[in-house]
Known about the structure:
By secondary structure, this protein is of the alpha/beta class. The chain has helices spanning 16-27, 39-51, 66-80, 106-116, 118-133, 152-172, 190-196, 200-205, 215-226; strands spanning 7-11, 31-36, 55-60, 85-88, 137-142, 177-184, 237-240.
Amino acid sequence: MRFEGKIAVVTGAGRGIGEGYAKALAREGASVVVAELDPENGERVAKEIEAEGGHALFVRTDVSSEESTAAMGEAAVGELGGVDYLVNNAAIYGGMKIESLLKVDWDYYQRFMAVNMNGALLCTRAVYRSMTKRGGGAIVNQSSTAAYMGVGYYGMAKLSLHALTHGLALELGGRGIRVNAIAPGPTDTEATRETVGEFVDSIVATMPIKRLGTVDDMVNAVLFLLSDEASFITGQILNVDGGQILKP
């Protein structure tokens, strides 16, 4: 119950790793804002949290929209009393187009970056004042080991989250808000199977720990970074990747 009495926002919490984050925070006592674009899955996750004895609020949220993210922040304050924690998990990943930087459709590229790059900043801007009023808090941005690999626009967006994490850690530290990120390696989710399923075995074969990551692997890392156990940690990128980024 590390988060009893606290309020957490998790974006993209309607499935996969984000769903895992939301449910784990609720199990440890937090009231959770399920900030999700898909109303069917967002409502499902909130109802499942409530059915397990937790407290959750679904807010339909488009993280690429300043208006939508501001409304999410206002709902968190109005319905739950404020925000202590933010997990910027939402991203276009499952089923994403695999195109080169030189040939990707420009409208798709702009939408992709609006969600995967700008969304974390817009959500932070929507809640940081509430965090400050409540005495501080913590933010975790969801990056990826793709940030280190030059993997097209997906890698670009994730690498930008590292810079955002560093910049926000500097800007928000004086407000008592810590900002970190995790960079998952290949993780056993539906989205990974949709996007890189045919390459998974060859990727795992190159890793020191020869298995896919699990949702629980990511949950444990994020809960640590949000908790008071990490009270002297900010501006860091934690690779949760089975050693994938190590080069033999």
